Hints:
Layout: H1 2-22, H2 29-40, E1 45-48, H3 55-64, E2 66-67, E3 77-81, H4 88-92, E4 93-98, E5 103-108, E6 115-119, H5 126-129, H6 133-138, E7 140-143, E8 146-149, E9 155-160, H7 173-176, E10 181-184, H8 190-198, H9 200-208, E11 214-215, H10 216-227, H11 233-248, E12 252-254, H12 258-274, H13 282-293, E13 298-299, H14 302-323
Parallel strand pairs: 1-9, 1-10, 2-11, 3-6, 6-9
Antiparallel strand pairs: 4-5, 7-8, 12-13
Helix pairs in contact: 1-2, 1-10, 2-12, 10-12, 11-12, 11-14, 12-13, 13-14
InterPro entries: ATPase_AAA-3, CbbQ/NirQ/NorQ/GpvN, ChlI/MoxR_AAA_lid, P-loop_NTPase
Domain ATPase AAA-3: 44-180
GO molecular function: ATP binding; ATP hydrolysis activity
Amino acid sequence: MEQSIAIEQALQNIQLLIGNIEKVIRGKRPQIELILTALLAKGHILMEDNPGTGKTVMAKTLAHSIAGKQHNSEVNFKRIQFTPDLLPMDLIGSHIFDDVHKEFVFKKGPLFCNVLLADEINRASPKVQSALLECMAENQITIGETTYPLEQLFFTIATQNPVEMEGTYPLPAAQLDRFYLKIYFGYVDEATELDIYKDYLGIQNNLEHTQQVLNMEDILLLQQQAQQVHLHDELTIAVRNIVSETRKHPDIVLGASTRSGITFLKCLKAFALVQGRTFVTEDDLQLITPAVLDHRLIYRNKEAKQKALASILNKEMERLSKLKLSH
């Protein structure tokens, strides 16, 4: 009985958070759901699109919707604008000499936060991008011989412009693998865009006065509940099959890793919870496969990128449809 009440509360909290975000971000329900999927799976998300589509505002709205540890405070939100002249110490922090105690003390950088917005991450050099590897994978930062743990709630939302644009560096494979999901934010439809134009002052006001509808403890509890979502054994096998097939497909040069498969399972459970369910369905698998795997694969050419993963997924969906799973 208590468990069912807890699940009901969890589903209400998720809808509360989505509704609060949608006061500012219009016409982006699928993208919002995937961002929350990454958050509840204890992962990080990469958003790619042209400037001006709302990626940065999305990150700010999410952070402003969550209350911090102190009464009436927000979670610790930091925004880093990535530029070609950025250095790793600008993210991690550095040792500064303390005149009083006559010793060097470590001054923490912006990575020590709850919600990090890494804006235009691919405008910085790979050396700077590598500063994110340890904190995103292990929730800690090592400086010399000292390891500093990060906050229990640490969520990175990175935005990037298409690689074809001037002044961008492609993210290395190791960095891409740290992102649980990669989504394309995209432009809104014409009707929604007109609605935004008519009410842009109201939207700006909503952003400035975003309500804190959940607190950090609520988010941490949702992360725990996402882990308890039921996943049918056949769906676990389906994930194994899809990941394995990416390594064998003739149009894929670099397939998905075992870590990718574990990430896939976590995202499936979190996505099901965001959808208001305590079990994963075949539709969940079909919907999130591209967002989980596409950015981890290296294809032979652009034509292969459009077809290879889709053909692997379709084959597995056909197999599952014959089984007629009961959840």
